[in-house]
Amino acid sequence: MNVDLTGKTALITGATGQLGRVMARTLGECGANIIIHYHGNEGKANELKQEIESLGRRSMIVRADITQFDEIMSMKDRVLEQFDAVDIVIANAVIQYEWKSVLEQPIEDYSSQVDSCVMQSVFLAKTFVPSMIERKAGRIIGINSECSMQNAPGQSAYVAGKRGMDGVYRVLAKEIGEHQITVNQIAPGWTISENDRLNNTEVSEGYSQTVPLRRRGSDQEIANVVAFIASDLASFITGAYIPVSGGNVMPAI
Fold it and tell me: Which residues form the signal peptide (predicted)?
């Protein structure tokens, strides 16, 4: 049994980021054509495009501010000039900021998290779901976080955005499920990335002691779950919030 995405086209927002680039490579290795969204890192976008094309897949790069509806709509128009349709939409981009306590966190950081988590999800759905409904097929995948369940000090703006995103995805799953479109969220733990490998910061004993598997997960382990959820193997999974955190958070029934 293989994860086969041959003939599918996937859009990954924030594809040049630490997790996004591994998702792009992994879905490409599974057979998908990849639309690489970026906001500021054009160099990495072009590098990633070459990697995907070296796998024998089609790829294109698109720049857009994912907090602006008109830019996402424009992105779709550019994509449809080269691809017939977008089968898989992965909302991975998020605005980075310095975490502080509720009393110290600047107000604009709350707005940025709502814009990049909640509104991005809404804009992507409004832009790409109608054609999925016509085709009676599609995958919407949001990258959430274990922080949504942790609610630890300093996480308030991030948690506010991600928990709002969770609500949108759960409702959307119920609204469009009849069209055989699945809507799911992947919630990584504190993940080892390329930056960690470059800086030798993969090990964090304090964090790992809180994780039942006693280690941090890798970016590849996150991408593997994304690829599975994007595939036909996960055709009867929708409305799920799936932690990939080594058991550090466990949704209850």
Answer: none
Would you tell me how many other CB atoms lie within 10 Å of the CB of residue 25? 19
* pLDDT cut 70: percent of the chain above it: 100
**What total number of domains does the chain contain?**
1
The pLDDT tens digits for 54-84 are 999 999 999 999 999 999 999 999 999 999 9
CATH number, domain of 92, equals: 3.40.50.720
Range of the domain at 225: 9-244
Instruction: For residue 110, indicate whether it is catalytic.
Output: no
Check 38, 97, 110, 158 and give the catalytic one.
158
Of 32, 30, 31, 13, which is closest to residue 21 (Cα–Cα)? 13
The Cβ-side half-sphere exposure at 204, using a 13 Å CA radius, reads: 17
Distance CA 246, CA 234 (A): 20
Instruction: Kindly state whether residue 1 falls inside one of the protein's structural domains.
Output: no
d(CA 38, CA 214): 34
User: Looking at this protein, which amino acid is placed at residue 189?
Assistant: G
- The pLDDT confidence band at residue 91, using thresholds 50, 70 and 90, is very high
Asked whether 3 and 207 are in contact (CB, 8 A), the reply is no
Instruction: Identify whether 228 is part of a domain.
Output: yes
Average pLDDT of the chain is: 97
With respect to residue 107, please indicate whether it lies within any of the assigned structural domains: yes
pLDDT bin (cut points 50, 70, 90) of residue 1 is confident
pLDDT for residue 52:
98
Flag whether 3 is in a domain. no
